[in-house]
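WARN no homologs supplied; continuing
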Amino acid sequence: MSDLFNETDRSGKGVVPGLGRRAPDRSERTKRVHAAFGFVGLLVAIAAAIFAYNETSSIALPIFVFIFVQAYIGRGLGDVATDPEKGKRFVYFTLQPIAAFGVLYLTYQWWGLMWLAAILGGVIGGALWALAGAVFFPKIQQEETEDTERRSKTGGL
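OK structure emitted
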């Protein structure tokens, strides 16, 4: 008896039930979702960077905002959307911008130098994220490290 969601054609490839045509490969769907999140992340990051520049007239803050918004939406939410069984990934990816923006805010409050706050926010925030990931989410951090290595070998998605 054929499972409704696991039907195959003569070649053994999956088909969409009732439509008689092959379903897209899971990795192809995943690539498309990642590409869509990457594009949306790019647009949102550009808008956020423009907003940050208009509010502060600083060059450092828009660069900082662009990098973290693009990483969060393009990579983080893309991974969460394609792997819904791992809800902890959302918390894991959210820790990075929280740590980075927290350090940025505190640094700017103490010294009033946005360029310094952006640099320290990125560096110290990234270090805090790595530390928190190792302590609270070691399995996810290991999977993401392997995923990053795989992406660098395959040229992205």
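Residues 26-56 form the longest helix (31 residues).
OK
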